[in-house]
Write a structure and sequence with these properties.
236 residues; mainly alpha; binds heme C
Length: 236
């Protein structure tokens, strides 16, 4: 599928900034001592983050999947800046806002209609590293003729008419700075269920992050199943 690579690409572009911000925040933190020194350091961090000329999407997780029309233009030059202090703090603490999807896609309705997870929408999961998110054309395979009178389906058709893709937001994923390399296919081959890592999506409407896929989760199961646990299995 043509858009298979898109989520990872956008993840990459919105995370190039992370290490510098963390570094800077930690360095700020070491100025412990007198309260005013810490305050001054914070002020410097704050100034650095708000005066930079180019702001950019700063969510830790690369929320917008692709070509989102509501997204700011990509920055022309590299900048480690956050849009504002609150964003910088959230990013440092690793707080991720929940995804807000442009279409209220009901997973449950489709799965009840016998559409499999990897049939059209996440076909990449069965064959390679990236599961993929469906393009508007994939939806229109069916919705060119099915349920065309429903409001949410009309929104889908309108995307195609405008020649625009649906800007799905990422639900899972890691900041680039964690240098995590994940690969779906070996898990599917080994019979690990989608639900083990993504929860009961079959009974949900939009996907929500139900599982915290931390390193502990990965390594724990790898140990239990005799899958490789050396660092380079999962990191680059
Ligand atoms: C393989 C066929 C198929 C594909 C592909 C498909 N759908 Fe559906 N969709 C259905 C069927 C069948 C229904 C149930 C229709 C009904 O209730 O009569 C449905 C229902 C819906 C509904 C609920 C409509 C309502 O309000 O009751 C939405 C929204 C929707 N689809 C969006 C999408 C989007 C977005 C995509 C692409 C990511 C997509 N669908 C891809 C077959 C499909
Ligand atoms: C062993 C755990 C695991 C299993 C099993 C698994 N996934 Fe994933 N999935 C992940 C991780 C981790 C990510 C984020 C990967 C990344 O960004 O590189 C992800 C990302 C995704 C995404 C992109 C969603 C988003 O918002 O980022 C989709 C779609 C997806 N998986 C679908 C599936 C499907 C369908 C299956 C079953 C065929 C499946 N996954 C099985 C761990 C898993
Ligand atoms: C529920 C169990 C389970 C979980 C959770 C899990 N894995 Fe796996 N993983 C496996 C199994 C089983 C294999 C297949 C090993 C094989 O093919 O011999 C595998 C294989 C892999 C491989 C391919 C290894 C290779 O070189 O053959 C990578 C990469 C990987 N996992 C990364 C991850 C990451 C990153 C996570 C956490 C997001 C994760 N896994 C979570 C069970 C799991
Ligand atoms: C089976 C997969 C797997 C293996 C093996 C693994 N890691 Fe990880 N590691 C992860 C995942 C996934 C994350 C991201 C977790 C998160 O962000 O919550 C991570 C995060 C990290 C981080 C934090 C990175 C950051 O910036 O957030 C460090 C450091 C790290 N791993 C080091 C190691 C080292 C050292 C080894 C070898 C001893 C190792 N890892 C082996 C999956 C793995």
């Amino acid at each position: 599928m043509a858009d298979k690579q898109a989520p990872r690409d956008s993840l990459t572009s919105s995370h190039g900034t992370q290490p510098d911000d963390d570094d800077r925040a930690r360095r700020g933190g070491r100025h412990g001592g007198a309260g005013w020194v810490a305050a001054a350091a914070l002020a410097v961090v704050w100034l650095a983050s708000v005066t930079s000329s180019v702001s950019q999407s700063s969510s830790r997780t690369g929320q917008s999947s692709q070509r989102g029309s509501d997204q700011a233009a990509p920055p022309a030059v590299f900048t480690p800046a956050h849009r504002n202090v609150a964003d910088a703090v959230r990013d440092f603490l690793g707080v991720r806002p929940a995804a807000v999807q442009p279409i209220a896609f009901p997973h449950n309705v489709h799965i009840a209609n016998r559409l499999g997870c990897t049939d059209y929408c996440h076909a990449g999961a069965a064959v390679g590293p990236v599961a993929g998110l469906p393009s508007v054309r994939t939806c229109m395979i069916c919705h060119g003729s099915i349920a065309t009178d429903r409001p949410e389906v009309k929104k889908v058709a309108a995307y195609l008419d405008r020649g625009e893709d649906i800007s799905w937001q990422r639900v899972y994923g890691y900041p680039r700075s964690a240098h995590v390399r994940f690969n779906h296919a070996p898990h599917v081959r080994a019979g690990v269920e989608c639900a083990t890592c993504h929860g009961d999506v079959a009974h949900r409407t939009v996907a929500t992050r139900s599982t915290d896929l931390t390193m502990g989760t990965c390594v724990g199961c790898h140990r239990a199943k005799n899958a490789p646990v050396d660092c380079l299995t999962c990191h680059f």
